[in-house]
């Protein structure tokens, strides 16, 4: 059997590597340099779980990436599962096992929903590695897309949406630091609890200043809170749960050009008398605007829309609805 190493962060892992993490053996799928949070059980796009039966043979667990045996004294090899009926247009790899992007994706195309692409273009993106950036983000533990209640097309749609948001967010960040702000409110990509300079303070919780953030989750761009005190990064609300996201955008703004306006109940944009700051969108495309609420002794930023009867903010491991809130608007 090939030499087995204990998994460690900050380590380059190449083809053929086998590691042990918490007593479980994994074989590499995609060469990479490990990072904290990229532990093998959290990164199914990078590692395939194995088990070692009696006699020195190695076999991946049922449901893993390689259902076959790996002979002893040989390099561990990854075998793709059989392609669906009809194949992949001559490529035997499944859509989530392509490691190199060989297909060009145009800027305007990234604005489209996965379901709006025709079947021929979807197939080009699948076999040409057009979903590789989203897979890398998911493989890094962004969230578990291998959920039992999602079919393959739903998974592809989430990967497509996630990577397109990341591409746009990286472009916004690059443009901001090269050219400066393009207006009174700009979203800057951050991660790991980091908050950029000139982030707009929007509340406080347990003595810590809270800032407005947004991140991609379940097909939408959700608005929430971030603070350097949060160990896992940003926190957004979804489905009446708090969700931690390691990558997110933070609102950087000029407080002289922005103001908070009181509102109540279902948001009526026309009645505000000012343009609200649009910060995100639901999965169906409904715009989400930046809001904040008084929750006990805390002030928590969150979201509101013209389809919600109150503002929603993440706090206490849930989403709290508050019919009285303030909306961030351009002055």
Automatic annotation (TrEMBL):
GO biological process per UniProt: carbohydrate metabolic process
GO molecular function: carbohydrate binding; hydrolase activity, hydrolyzing O-glycosyl compounds
Biased composition range(s): Basic and acidic residues: 90-101
Keywords from the named record: Hydrolase
CC terms in the record's Gene Ontology section: extracellular region
Regions crossing the membrane: none
CDD domains membership: ChiA1_BD
InterPro entries recorded: CBM5/12 (IPR003610), CBM_sf_5/12 (IPR036573), DM9_repeat (IPR006616)
Positions with biased composition (Low complexity): 53-78
Disordered as annotated region, ranges: 31-101
Domain Chitin-binding type-3 positions: 4-50
Coiled coil, from the record: none
Organism superkingdom: Eukaryota
Name this protein carries in UniProt: Carbohydrate-binding module family 12 protein
């Amino acid at each position: 059997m090939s030499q087995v190493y204990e998994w460690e962060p900050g380590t380059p892992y190449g083809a053929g590597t086998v590691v042990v993490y918490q007593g479980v053996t994994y074989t590499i799928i995609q060469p990479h340099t490990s990072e904290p949070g990229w532990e093998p059980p959290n990164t199914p796009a990078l590692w395939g779980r194995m088990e070692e039966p009696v006699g020195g043979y190695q076999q991946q667990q049922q449901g893993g990436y390689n259902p076959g045996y790996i002979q002893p004294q040989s390099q561990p090899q990854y075998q793709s599962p059989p392609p669906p009926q009809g194949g992949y247009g001559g490529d035997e790899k499944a859509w989530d096992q392509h490691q190199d992007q060989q297909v060009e994706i145009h800027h305007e195309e990234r604005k489209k929903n996965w379901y709006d692409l025709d079947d021929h273009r979807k197939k080009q993106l699948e076999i040409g590695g057009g979903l590789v950036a989203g897979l890398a983000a998911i493989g890094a533990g962004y969230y578990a897309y291998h959920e039992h209640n999602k079919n393959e097309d739903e998974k592809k749609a989430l990967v497509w949406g996630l990577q397109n948001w990341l591409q746009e967010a990286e472009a916004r960040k690059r443009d901001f630091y090269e050219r400066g702000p393009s207006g009174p409110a700009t979203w800057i990509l951050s991660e790991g609890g980091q908050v950029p300079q000139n982030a707009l303070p929007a509340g406080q919780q347990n003595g810590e200043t809270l800032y407005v953030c947004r991140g991609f989750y379940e097909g939408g761009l959700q608005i929430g809170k971030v603070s350097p005190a949060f160990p896992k990064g940003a926190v957004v609300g979804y489905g009446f749960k708090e969700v931690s996201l390691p990558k997110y955008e933070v609102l950087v703004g000029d407080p002289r050009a922005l103001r908070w306006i009181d509102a109540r109940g279902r948001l009526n944009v026309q009645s505000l008398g000012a343009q609200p700051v649009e910060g995100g969108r639901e999965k169906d495309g409904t715009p989400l605007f930046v809001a904040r609420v008084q929750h006990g002794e805390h002030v928590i930023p969150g979201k509101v829309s013209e389809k919600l009867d109150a503002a929603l903010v993440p706090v206490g491991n849930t989403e709290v609805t508050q019919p009285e809130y303030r909306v961030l608007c351009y002055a």
